[in-house]
Design a protein that fits this description.
75% helix, mainly alpha, 0% strand, 2 domains, single chain
C-alpha cells in the first residue's frame, strides 16, 4: 500500500511545486497550507503548468473570440444562434442611436450654458464699469 501511495504522489514533489508552496507559505499562509494539502493528498499536480496556463489566459485572453460589449462598427457576433446575433445587432443599433441623441443633447446644453455664462460675465462687467464711472 505504501508503494502505491508513494508512486501516486511521487510526481507531486517537483522542485517547482515545492518552490511555489514555500513562497505561498511565506507570503500567504493559508494559500501555502492549501497547496501543501493538495500536494500531499491530491492527485498529480503540476503547479508550474497551471500558473503558466493561467498567465497565458490573463495576457492573451480566452481561447474563443468574444463579441465586443459596446458596438463600435467592428463588432463580431459569434453566437451559434443567428436570431440572438440579430437581436444583439438590433439592440446595439438602438443603443448607439440613443447614445448619439444623448451626446447631441449634451452638446446643445453645454453650448447654451456657455452662452449663459458669457452673458452673465458681460452683465457683471457692465455693472462694474458703470459703478466705476459713477465713482469718478
Amino acid at each position: 500500500m505504501t508503494s502505491s501511495l508513494n508512486k501516486r504522489h511521487s510526481n507531486n514533489w517537483r522542485s517547482s511545486n515545492i518552490g511555489i508552496m514555500l513562497i505561498g507559505l511565506l507570503i500567504i499562509m493559508p494559500f501555502g497550507l492549501v497547496l501543501l494539502a493538495m500536494l500531499t493528498f491530491g492527485k498529480s499536480i503540476n503547479l508550474a503548468a497551471m500558473f503558466k496556463d493561467f498567465w497565458s489566459r490573463i495576457t492573451n485572453g480566452p481561447d474563443f473570440e468574444q463579441p465586443a460589449l459596446w458596438g463600435n462598427g467592428t463588432t463580431k457576433y459569434n453566437h451559434k444562434n443567428q436570431a440572438y446575433n440579430q437581436y444583439r445587432r438590433q439592440q446595439d443599433a438602438e443603443f448607439n442611436a440613443k447614445q448619439s441623441a444623448a451626446k447631441a443633447q449634451l452638446a446643445d446644453e453645454q453650448y447654451a450654458f456657455e452662452q449663459y455664462i458669457k452673458a452673465k460675465k458681460l452683465n457683471e462687467n457692465k455693472a462694474e464699469f458703470e459703478k466705476f464711472q459713477q465713482s469718478i
